[in-house]
Amino acid sequence: MEKLIVHGGNRLRGKVLISGSKNSSLPILAATLLTKDDCVIRQVPDLSDTNYMLQILRALGAEVERASGTVNVKAEKIIPDTPYDLVRKMRASICVMGPLTGRLRKAVVSMPGGCVIGDRPVDLHLKGLEYLGAKVQMDGGNIHIEAKKPLKGCTMNLLGKFGSTVLGTDNVLMAAVLTKGTTIIEGAAAEPEVEDLANFLIKMGAKIEGAGTTRIVVEGVKELHGAEHTVIPDRIEAGTFLVAGAIFGDGVMVKRVVPAHLKNVTDTLLASGYEVTSTKDSVTIMPGSGSPKGFHLTTRVYPGFPTDMQAQFCALACLIPGLSSIKETIFPQRFMHVSELKRMGANIELDGDTARITGVETLSGAPVMASDLRASAALVLAGLAAKGTTEIHRLYHIDRGYEHLDEKLSMLGAVTERVKE
Ligand code: EPU
Question: Whole-model pTM?
Answer without folding.
Answer: 0.98
